[in-house]
């Protein structure tokens, strides 16, 4: 029998990969979309008459207005900005306001200062930096997929027949296994991260990694405990959970309760030890 405390002690602080921090391919691709307009706006850098030159540039090249939002690190083309004197909804998908209104926005957001005072030398390079900062916000989404990617790599190594992001209804359709007890008699639709199919069984897999503590961990452990109990009586079906992360140390009691009722609960060390090659039979 596995000892819970020994098992939990194997949990890791992080599984961050090299590409977790910044997706530079995406950063460059995003900046490239604005290259032409940014080079046009570069003509305003260091100019004291920046507002007059902006108006002239806008008349000749109206498309430059579309890059204004990214200069203040906003992806949307509708921006709401007000103060005690002026403001409202500004649109930048195409020319929708007067040149004076756009100048007001550029002046009050500090963009004209950025250009006229030569705070930056090149707006394309500046936008690369903006995109890098915005992409760092995507770490949470990338982190959510790290454990999935790790588990999938071991499923592939074991040469298993598996399906990604499969719904309970699809399991029933493909293999005739009724999972209504897991889906509130069909009133909710449960989606599993992976489903492995063998000649004798269908395995539904959930994966997650929690590097920090939070209320979600207790909720997850309780939910999967109920799932484990309800799955026991379904013929030809097993529920498997791969989890890890130092965050579980603060929610150890709820995880322990799930560990005690779910024998197919594994961590990364067990994945590395080859559990994927022996579990799915």
Uncertain runs are none
Give the strand order of the largest sheet, numbering strands 1, 2, ... along the chain: 3-4-5-6-7
- The number of distinct β-strands equals 7
Our measurement of the CA-to-CA distance between the termini, rounded to an integer number of angstroms, reads 20 Å
Average predicted local confidence, pLDDT: 94
Beta-strand residue fraction: 5-15%
CATH class of the largest domain, please? Alpha Beta
Tally of alpha and pi helices: 14
Q: Give helix % range.
A: 40-55%
Q: Based on the structure given, which CATH architecture of the largest domain is correct?
A: 3-Layer(aba) Sandwich
Helix-strand category:
alpha/beta
Domain count: the total is 2
Provide the CATH topology of the largest domain: Trna Endonuclease, Chain: A, domain 1
Describe the biggest sheet? Answer: 5 strands, mixed
What Rg, in angstroms, do the CA atoms define? Answer: 27 Å
Q: Any idea what the shape is?
A: elongated
The secondary-structure element order is HHHHHEEHHHHEHEEHEHEHH
Question: Could you write a compact summary of the structure shown?
Answer:
47% of the residues lie in helices and 15% in strands. With 281 residues, it is of the alpha/beta class.
